[in-house]
Automatic annotation (TrEMBL):
Protein keywords: Lipid metabolism, Methyltransferase, S-adenosyl-L-methionine, Transferase
GO molecular function terms noted in the UniProt entry: methyltransferase activity
Keyword Lyase applies: no
Family: Belongs to the CFA/CMAS family.
Gene Ontology BP annotations: methylation
InterPro entries: CFA/CMAS, CMAS, SAM-dependent_MTases_sf
Region of interest called Disordered, as start-end residue ranges on this chain: 123-146
E.C. numbers: 2.1.1.-
UniProt keyword Repressor, yes or no: no
Name this polypeptide is given: Class I SAM-dependent methyltransferase
Top-rank EC class of the record's enzyme: transferase
Amino acid sequence: MPDAARRLTVLAEQVLGAPLPVRLRAWDRSEYGPPGTPVLVIRRRRALRRLLFKPGELGLARAWVAGDIDVEGDLYRALDLLAGSLWERGEGAARHSGLTALLATVRDPRLRAAGSELVRLAGVGLPPRPPREEARRSGGPLHTLRRDKQAISHHYDVGNAFYERVLGPSMVYSCAYWESPGATPDATSDSVPDATSDAAPEATLEDAQRAKLDLVCRKLALRPGMRLLDVGCGWGSMVLHAAREYGVSAVGITLSEEQAAYARKRVADAGLADRVEIRVQDYREIADGPFDAISSIGMAEHVGAVRYGEYAADMYGLLKPGGRLLNHQIARRPLKDEEAYEVDEFIDRYVFPDGELAPVGRTVAQLEEAGFEVRDVEALRQHYALTLRRWVANLEAHWDEAVALTSPGRARVWRLYMAASALSFERNRIGVNQVLAVRTPASGDSGMPLRARDWR
């Protein structure tokens, strides 16, 4: 009688010391575990071999991307239930406490019987090859010009049509700005409100992204004739909005060839080619400053700790006296021992190679060390959770197209990372902040109003 699911559940609970919070279905079609919960599907024995040969989060990530494991039911609930048992880390706790304990059975004499059982269930076979969606990187120092360009290409050069399905018409790949927390979606951004309802129509993702772009423009106090630099311009949405609505001349830079081509077409179609320039260029290569204002939206996460001081100094040097920088950046929670910080293996291998998060306090300190006067910090953590749920809904609604445009593995990467990230923002494990900083001149006149938040 097939019983792999029961054997795996018993093994997991023996090692973890707690009931497994989800139901299991194994490759032999057996099921075991609490009814009414999401089902963790282990489609192939190969999933266990991935974990045995590469213990930790990376083995689990490879099994997910390859389709060796899956979830039936509510993915958000499944991730939330499994987090405490397998990979959630607490402050000062071992990073993979539950998962590491499970895989340590093959080495721990006290759990040798459990380890032998895990090996028997995994079956005989060579180490499985990593899914092709995994980043292939050369060695050498982090955050060189060449390595950063490769990392950006891995994430962004996966097809503009794929991103259209996920991001919607705005083509903005950063946190939107919502009017109320009631905007949590169960449908795509294109859903039509009930015409018979007296309630105000719910804001769409497009509305919220437009509100975010406008918030940035107002914080920068953009006016006709000013010159704006958008660092990490993506598909051009910020420079288009600033030129069209605020009359500025704008330069947008990206390291993605596909993004640049797409943005240039949007600029030409909007009739703004005389005022908007899109470049494939690193921020360290800009030589035609100064600018009146700089927006850096969702780009600084790629800079890295070893380069952040240089980044802050470059932004300062590219601004005119009195010029403003709007730095929009994801932040992690501070750790008691900063030496314990490790980059998430799934994110590093499959999503943002070489990306690093820093606490917002460190970001503020490094901007100040570069000479900036920091005038405002606004936390948008809950806004990003709402945004990510919209993107997941869009991806799920266009799943077959997304798979055809990229690969099944790539679509699975994006679904997992966006859903898990939404939960991380909702649980205050990570945040996102807009830091408004000024290159205040020697006179001390920052040009800021006494009540800075009149942009609201």
